[in-house]
Design brief:
By secondary structure, this protein is mainly alpha-helical. It has one domain (4-18, 30-232). It contains ten helices and no strands. The longest helix has 18 residues, at 109-126. The two termini are 23 Å apart.
């Protein structure tokens, strides 16, 4: 039986799927909803993969999308221009993701976990200037490569996970945090399964990509897991 707290989180998760973030565009920008973020990142990338990764000379992920993600997930300022991030991300996509994009779905779970940590390390080191940024990299990959078992990372989530696992202190970096997330997620998974709302934002191709993703992966359950962690320390 669900508690009132869990039911409230379910309602918030469904609301997040369709409602724009209040932090972006006075709460009027549909791209900042969870569906919107999946569409502009993963949906755009999956669409590009169907057209030989061509994008008329533009970056595959626009700097505007980077700004929307930072604002909607309330990521801290790191003093790096979004144009720089978009340019580096384009290079990262073409060097790291394009060659393996079609193979990701065929990896077993262990292979996907290993690839998750490899890509996280490379993104954290390469995309955000001279300082390693695991927080920003994890949120970016959560929407860019949702077919991989990525868990977003940050001070609030680190504290929440540490509390739930009865740690004496927070996790030192992403790798032990990731192992802890996998452990708790596995334990909570039976209670995270729920009906998934269909995609409504994006063009037809993006909506189809997002619907296929959600039916063929555990992204929706990880999304609910993260929101529950966030609420646990509100």
């Amino acid at each position: 039986m669900k508690t009132m707290h869990c039911e409230r989180i379910d309602e918030d998760t469904l609301s997040d799927w369709t409602q724009p973030s209040e932090r972006v565009g006075s709460g009027q920008d549909d791209r900042s909803s969870q569906n919107g973020l999946l569409s502009i990142f993963y949906g755009s990338l999956d669409k590009a993969s169907q057209y030989n990764w061509l994008n008329a000379g533009r970056t595959l992920v626009d700097k505007t999308y980077i700004n929307i993600l930072k604002q909607s997930e309330d990521l801290p300022s790191i003093g790096v221009d979004s144009h720089h991030v978009a340019t580096e991300l384009d290079r990262f996509i073409r060097e790291e993701l394009q060659p393996i994009w079609q193979e990701i779905d065929h990896l077993d779970h262990t292979g996907k976990q290993a690839l998750t940590l490899t890509l996280l390390d490379k993104a954290a080191d390469r995309l955000f200037g001279s300082d390693r940024q695991e927080n920003h990299a994890s949120w970016l990959l959560f929407y860019l490569c949702p077919q991989l078992p990525i868990f977003p990372y940050g001070p609030l989530l680190n504290q929440a996970l540490s509390n739930r696992l009865h740690q004496e202190s927070v996790f030192e970096n992403y790798h032990p945090y990731y192992r802890g997330s996998c452990e708790l997620f596995t334990r909570m998974l039976p209670n995270l399964v729920s009906e998934q709302p269909p995609a409504w934002y994006g063009d037809k191709s993006q909506q189809q990509s997002v619907n296929r993703l959600k039916s063929g992966s555990d992204w929706w359950q990880r999304h609910r897991f993260i929101r529950q962690l966030e609420k646990s320390v509100d």
